[in-house]
Write a structure and sequence with these properties.
It is built from 16 helices and 16 strands. The protein is α+β, with helices and mostly antiparallel strands.
């Protein structure tokens, strides 16, 4: 029997309920802030990722689903969506005026990952990207949207971890100081860090190796090397977060290792499930649009794993609350035709009703209704039809009453509240 491809899964039932609830919350709360959805293709030319995420990154180097299509184009299934969004805003000249572009996306991403708990080869991300906004206030706006969205999902113990990675202009001085520091204790760093200190020193700061983290004690910090404007930006963002009551801590080791990142880098940490863990990350990437062939514009964004959020929701709240609709059970062909007409009117009035269409015996139909968690069964036999009523069985209490057919719509609407 065919099985889903390793690392992918089918979404249905209560897991999908959570996906949809979160997606609804995203749309509602992001639209409130004036963000519009963007949907870019899953397939992109591989260059889009090579030129943005970078050829040397694990994502591009090891984890990309790339292949040559029948027209011999080298394409990849997107491993993330920022590059695609940037490609799209350039292609469609959305940055032709100086107006801000506030965009968000929700969609599947693909990475050929080693299998482990919570990591999939097809997974979902939600992200927000704002273009042509360069102020700390614009970052705060995006962070407020993110924070309030996570709070709306019931996550209460959230802290922003923030840093500034400066600009390409102020980084050489930091690199020099940092390399000098590294040399004083180079034997304590792992082999990868020895490579990183040459290629991209910032990456040493977020090495996962505990020995390297210990060796970093007392390292020079980027914030001390910021140009005056970047420092002012950083100080202002902290001021705003303080005023707005968004909890944050500074983390001088928080870096986004790619060259196009500038100034603000952040993560959201949560202790909602015990040990503190990073829920997501993001930052300012003023260099990326140009790097992908567009104009020099300011940009800020972040992305969060939806699968991860769903797991959190399940652990915190169990199943997504869902009320199964009442079931209308007609008995016999005449009642079934009438039931179709009645139900159609109720559906048109915006009411939820499941119609039993199998023509099975009442006992069978009630068993199914019970299994589906229906609160009520509306039973319509020829006798009820003649009298213009329906028998209504409360499936929780086991009681039964009779409703006049012309009152059902109103009663169902009242029940829904
Ligand atoms: P990244 O793009 O690696 O910074 O990840 C951004 C978000 O996507 C994080 O919240 C991760 O939890 C999530 N994520 C990344 N890779 C996977 C994966 N293979 N399976 C599930 N979630 C993932």
């Amino acid at each position: 029997m065919a099985q889903s491809v390793k690392g992918t899964r089918d979404l249905f039932g209560s897991e999908l309920d959570w996906f949809q609830r979160i997606e609804d919350t995203v749309r509602r709360s992001f639209h409130r802030h004036g963000y519009s959805e963007i949907r870019t293709p899953i397939l992109e030319e591989i260059e889009v990722f090579k030129r943005s995420v970078g050829e040397s990154s694990d994502i591009v180097h090891k984890e990309m689903y790339d292949f040559f299509d029948k027209g011999k184009r080298h394409v990849a299934m997107r491993p993330e969506n920022t590059a695609g969004v940037v490609r799209a805003v350039i292609q469609h000249q959305l940055l032709a005026t100086s107006d801000p572009q506030l965009l968000y996306y929700i969609g599947p991403m693909f990475r050929y990952e080693r299998m482990q708990a919570g990591r999939y080869r097809q997974f979902w991300q939600i992200g927000a990207e704002s273009f042509q906004v360069s102020t700390p206030e614009s970052e705060a706006e995006s962070l407020v949207m993110l924070y309030d969205f996570l709070r709306e999902l019931g996550l209460a113990q959230l802290t922003f971890s923030i840093n500034s990675v400066g600009t390409p202009e102020c980084r050489p001085a930091f690199h020099e100081a940092f390399r000098a520091f590294f040399r004083t204790r180079e034997a304590e760093f792992c082999e990868d860090c020895h490579r990183r200190i040459e290629e991209n020193p910032l990456r040493v700061l977020d090495c996962k190796n505990a020995r390297c983290q210990a060796a970093l004690e007392g390292h020079p910090v980027l914030v001390d090397f910021l140009d005056p404007a970047s420092l002012e930006h950083h100080v202002r963002l902290k001021e705003i977060l303080t005023t707005l009551g968004l909890p944050f801590e500074e983390n001088p080791r928080l870096v986004r290792g790619l060259d196009y990142y500038t100034r603000t880098a952040f993560e959201v940490l949560s202790t909602d499930l015990g040990a503190q863990s990073a829920l997501l990350g993001g930052g300012r990437y003023d260099g990326l649009v140009k790097q992908l062939g567009g104009p020099q514009v300011a940009a800020f964004g972040w992305s969060i794993g939806l699968d991860r959020l769903v797991t959190l929701m399940q652990q915190l709240h169990g199943k997504a609350p869902r009320q199964a609709p009442p079931v209308l059970i007609p008995l016999g062909p005449a009642a079934t035709l009438k039931a179709l007409e009645l139900a159609r009117g109720w559906w048109a009035a915006g009411l939820d009703v499941v119609l039993e269409t199998r023509g099975v015996k009442l006992k069978n139909a009630l068993t199914t209704a019970n299994r589906q968690g229906a609160p009520l069964a509306l039973i319509l036999g020829d006798g009820e039809l003649d009298q213009g009523v329906v028998a209504v069985k409360d499936l929780t209490a086991g009681t039964q009453e009779t409703w006049a057919l012309d009152t059902v719509q109103e009663r169902l609407a009242d029940l829904r509240g």
